[in-house]
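Note to self: keep these together.
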Amino acid sequence: MNAEQFNGIKLMIRSYMETLSLDECKAELIAKGLLTTNSKLAKGENLNYGLELLPSILAKGVNLCPNAGACKFTCLAFSGQGNILKGRKMFAGEELSAPLKAKARRTFVFINDKEWFEAFLLMEIRQKNEMAQMLGAKSFFRLNVTSDVEWIHLTILVPHIAFYDYTKVWNRYSTGNYHLTFSVDENTTDEMIEAKLSKGENVAIVFNTNTLPEKYFNFSVIDGDLNDDRTTDAKGVIVGLKLKVTIGGKDNSLGFAR
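Structure:
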């Protein structure tokens, strides 16, 4: 989508959020939970759960993806059948999709009662981890499926539980139980990419091609679309991702994909 279409959806979301009740949104989260799964998270043998908030500047007064560039126009928050089928109505300013409304309600609670939100999130993470153990499985949690919030302060409270995320905030760092993959965009220099990879960190690059290259910058490229679990990736590799279809189709007009 272009900037005008993005801003139109932003205004619809902000208008929708003005109608929300904090108590009603909390009641919904208590009933349905914060964490979700999707087709990407479900790939693999582990139980992967994700938190989907509104990305970038869609919510008024906050930026949940502080370093977002052109990617905000083709964010995964706008992907999926529920969004694509409502694309024309959203561009026309007529109706928001159900997935975006759900993200808006979660984000509304996050913004207006962060202490309650984080306490509830931590409780749900512990519960799902215990359920996975009862099933003899491993659980992994991605707290920034569609955002780029700093979560290290929460992950250190449960050092026995594994977390992973993509981030465009390149001065963040991985910890023992929180694996970060650093995302490339149109503003990322070749020197930045090579520096991260040389230190054993992993870098995600979106390729606007039908097939992924085997190597890039003389570093190995792995297929990041095969599954979502980045915690088992080798160190110092490029996580290759193909450009996805979102509202408005595939769009690399601003050049964040390579």
